[in-house]
């Protein structure tokens, strides 16, 4: 709850589409217009990694940090192996996630928030701008055009998420909050990473603050880890879903959309770049998840 509340407080068409309608009965009436124009009590919540952006935001952010010598090659290679395993296995390990948390915080500790924000702007242009899924971006724009607010909800640092949201013209972002004192990172988090159930808590908190009716809101994600968030809203969408989310969505009649094609869709969770070597090498830069403990 603390992570969700902290995130909420901190935050306040050109790709090929394969639109899989949930199974229905022949002759089922057409769905009402969605999003509903002018419904100010409705909003949309988008996961970031592999939902709006191909790959992970930290994958790309870390490439920029490595380029700027925030960590060394050995650390990058150690993370590369773990990130490749994570992507291929499609599962998470609590110890690895703890290492990721500790490593990311150790990298930014002592740096000024303003410094990382400035670097983040540069990295967006270098590595992220051309990796936005146009189809998902069009979904977000439809909500904006209907007069609704659109929020990113991600485990990525809220500063990174805020840059991406601003560049895409979205309302704002909910992300993991790293503690800072007098504008300098302390190396600690406020609460926990915004992941899984914490995302749902963040959305609840934001909805209360914004006077939103969650039954009229939409949420979009690629991951079964976000089922708690998707289950909160009246209009859940599975975007580029992993196998668990695809099965869950089909069983419950949720809408599915997949903007991957061919080989890109064959392996769940592998960013569309160029095979495991390129993916892992770039991902290694993300936050050096396997940074050696000293």
From TrEMBL:
Family of this protein: Belongs to the HAD-like hydrolase superfamily. SerB family.
Pfam families in the record: HAD
Domain of life: Bacteria
NCBIfam families in alphabetical order: HAD-SF-IB, HAD-SF-IB-hyp1
Compositionally biased intervals (Basic and acidic residues): 10-19
An example Gene Ontology molecular-function term: hydrolase activity
Alphabetical list of InterPro entries matching this protein: HAD-like_SerB, HAD-like_sf, HAD_hydro_SerB1, HAD_sf
Residue ranges, annotated region (Disordered): 1-35
Source species: Streptomyces macrosporus
The name this protein goes by in its record: HAD-IB family hydrolase
Keywords, ordered alphabetically: Hydrolase, Membrane, Transmembrane, Transmembrane helix
Segments traversing the membrane: 268-289
